[in-house]
Each structure stands twice: as C-alpha cells, then as structure tokens.
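Risk register update: the risk of archive-format incompatibility is retired. Evidence:
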Amino acid sequence: MRYLSQRYTMPDDVTKGLLTDIGTEELGHLEMVGTLVAQLSKGAPPKEWQQMGSWEYYADNGASVSPQSSQGSPFNAASIAVTGDPLTNLYEDLAAEQKARAVYDNILRLSDDPDVNQVIKFLREREIVHFQRFGEAKRKLTSRKKAHSLRCFAAPIKYKSYDIEL
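Archived output:
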C-alpha cells in the first residue's frame, strides 16, 4: 500500500513504474504469507490455539488469517508513510525493506520447518532485490538533483522571524 500510494509524486515514469511493480509484488507477498499461515493452522483445534497462547486470536478470528503484527496489533493505514517528497519516500522504502528482511531473518532463526523456510527465504531474497532497486532509484534522483542544482523536490518553506519580548 505504501509504494502504491507513493508513486503519484515520483518525478518520472521509471520510478513510478518501479513503485507500481514492487507495490504489486508486495501484495503477492501478503497472499503468500496468508496462505502459509492458513496451511500451518488448518485443522488446529481450539485447545491447540490455547496451548500456543493464541486463544485471543482464535476467539476473534477463528482459523482465518487476519492482517496483524506478531504482537497482535491489527493492520492500519497509519503505517503507510507518504510524505509527497520523492527522496524522503525512497529513504522510508529502503528502511521498510530492511525491516522486512530482518523479520525474515528472525523467522529463519526460529523455524525448523524446511517448507516454511523455503517460502521465507524466497520472500527475504525479494526484499533484498527491492532494497537494491530503491537504492538505484534514490541514486538517480539524487544525481539528477545535483546535476540540475535543484533545491529539494518539495516546495521550499519560508519562515517568518518574530521578535519576542520576555
């Protein structure tokens, strides 16, 4: 959602296309993780959910997959960072990809299921590719800015000074 929302303020079609492509791929990752969770929890009786300490999740969702963090915080749009400044957005995207890679690294340290690990390794590799692509886009925008001696992509902010007597 973040990348698909950020594409509208990118200064060129190549970067807009990059955000569209990666945003679409990330929706596919969501589907893959959802399928993985559904397969792992399929047929688990309520008692097993209790033993895992996940009875609250089961009470709210049954065996359905609900988009939320590992701590149980539901997804909300507040996590979608869109500033309107292309360079700032790309830095945010680089950080998001690194965070995702770190989460996948942690899952791989915890999991001993080869089938789960295969999926997680694939997703981890894609996050690395996304990080590289966002880095390339950031370098192009930065070099374009330097080459044209442009100010920051966002509109300049004019500050008024005020004399304040204490």
